[in-house]
Amino acid sequence: MRRVAAAVGITPMAVYRHYPDHKGLLNALADEGFQELSDRLTAVRFPGDIEERLTKILDVNLDFALENSRLFELMFLKPREGSRQFPRDFRAGKSPTANLVRELIDEGMKAGYFRKDDIWEIVFEMGALLQGLIMLYLGGRMAMSAARFRSFCHRSFRRYIHGIRK
User: How far is CA 78 from CA 72, 81, 82, 83, in A?
Assistant: First the structure.
């Protein structure tokens, strides 16, 4: 907490007035990260077919992760108190980022674009695919440029989406 206080030019006690401890500060950072990602995703409302809109959501997530790699890691990889749990919290609609994907998958199922299946499992699988690829890339396990990585993610998602198509 002292290093955080020094980095932002305040006293350690000022930090403790807002956050009870290190975990509280990290939770607040993760919550702000989820809000920013949700805001970015919500702003992506444009015409196109289901696959084009899902790809745009993929790109927003990739942009966010590549611009904020440490924050993305904190949000999705680090265990933390109060983080949403699958399936209970997701089915209850408590994940603003996942809710947007759920709407598209539901729309695709109703339109006959996707087979009828468990919407929340599909949403969670898509998120796991994305987060897994991002973590491997950020962890230096993929020897490719950011542009090649993005293309790889697009191909991976296309294969997944085509696998659940009707």
Answer: 10, 10, 12, 10
